[in-house]
Amino acid sequence: MRNSLADVVAAALRVLDAQGLENCSMRRVAAELEVQPSALYHHVPNKQSLLALMADEIVRGVGVAQARAGATTPEAAAAAARQLCVELRAAMLAVRDGADVVATAAAFRLGRSRVEERLAGLVGGDGARTLLLFTFGHAQSTQTHRQAAALGALVDPDLADPELGNEELSDAERSVPGTEAGLDLDASFGRGLDLILAGLAQLPDPRAH
């Protein structure tokens, strides 16, 4: 049975999750579907187009509830914007290298995602761009941190034995609050959002124009 465009995107996301963005090639996606690479070009003209579709699928549904609910006050708009960014980060972190895929698509204006539009409706264009850049950057940093932790590559020089050099931390050391490996990245993301939104609250309400 011939594969659909949705099948191609789903296969690409499986390859991405299993092998990472660097190894997510058209050839590997075709192998996942057990077809020749040329068969993919019936659906997408190139890898860039496929990347855009993957990004759209990763963030599908993000911000929909906020857009439907609306926001009648600046406080409600800020709360909705915060929740949208939390959802966006969670969606990107749910897929290996998802933050890189979505951030790249956004940077090159690829795909049809309306996340930025929905966010702009809450905090204005400049506010939306600032929140998106922070969310993308934090998600990418979090994914890098998680991948390093999975490989046992996180080292805190304050805890490593100076006579041995920066050796890998033990399981007990990894759990110590305040170490790089033990940072609460979710909490730091929330604090960052609150700082940005507090700054935006000092500006005129962009929805008033």
Structural description of this entry:
The chain is built from ten helices and no strands. The longest helix has 36 residues, at 115-150. With 209 residues, the chain is mainly α.
Content of β-strand: under 5%
How many H/I helices? 10
How many β-strand runs? 0
Average pLDDT number: 85
The helix/strand class is mainly alpha
Radius of gyration over all CA atoms, rounded? 20 Å
Helix content: 55-70%
Uncertain regions spanning at least 5 consecutive residues? 157-182
* Main sheet record: none
Distance between the termini: 53 Å
**Morphology call:** globular
Helix and strand sequence? HHHHHHHHHH
DNA-binding region: 25-44
Pfam families: TetR_N
Keywords: DNA-binding, Transcription, Transcription regulation
Protein name: TetR/AcrR family transcriptional regulator
Short description:
It is built from ten helices and no strands. It has about 210 residues and is mainly α.
Strand and helix map with partners:
Layout: H1 5-19, H2 26-33, H3 37-40, H4 47-58, H5 64-69, H6 74-93, H7 98-107, H8 115-150, H9 171-174, H10 185-201
Defining key terms:
single chain, mainly alpha
